Amino acid sequence: MRNKFDEQLQRLDEYLIRMGELCESAITNATKALKEGSIEQAKAVIEDDSEIDEMEKDVEKMCLKLLLQQQPVAKDLRRISAALKMITDMERIGDQTADIAEIVISSKMTESVDIKDIGKMASAVSKMVRDSVASYVDKDLELAKKVMLEDDAVDELFFKIQGELIQFIAEQKGQHGRKIVDLIMVTKYLERIGDHATNIAEWVEFSMTGVHRNGVQV
Q1: What is the pLDDT of residues 61-76, one digit of tens each?
Q2: What is the phi/psi pair of residue 115, to 5°?
Q3: CA-CA to 42 of 20 to 30 Å: which in 18, 49, 94, 114?
């Protein structure tokens, strides 16, 4: 019975890895759509969000089945509970990449955009997502803690880019104002993705220690 349960937990890990990969890909593709001004690429990101939504449902069913049909010990219960929380954050990451894609489409950004620092921010949050999922699968508490620390660097980038864009609006006396506001929204979505990756890492910590930073303790 335990062997079968362990096999199901392994399958859960595989689903979470795949969902994390989809989130990473969505971040990369949304940034590429913005950089290249590609409406088609943006539409593809929105379609990919649907796949992330479906995976959330699949993993949720898998977790509930494990909880209802098996008798998990405390550490397994924490692991499955953490997975349920993680997929919620990953689904929201998918939503926010779709929001970036919607900006590309609605703003008709058919020209390339110089987004060096935004690209840097996108790469940082993508790595946070990858590492947070890896920390769960590998049971790597130190990696989870590293992800939490990296959120500070992403926040600093957000405020730096936001300040530069606001200054640019002032210097241009309102020219390109709509475009700059859209870019500020893009950075806000990326900052939120960093927050979700941090949430995932915090639930990984809970799965291994039984203590969550919001006060939950099991």
Answers
A1: 999 999 887 777 888 8
A2: -130, 50
A3: 18
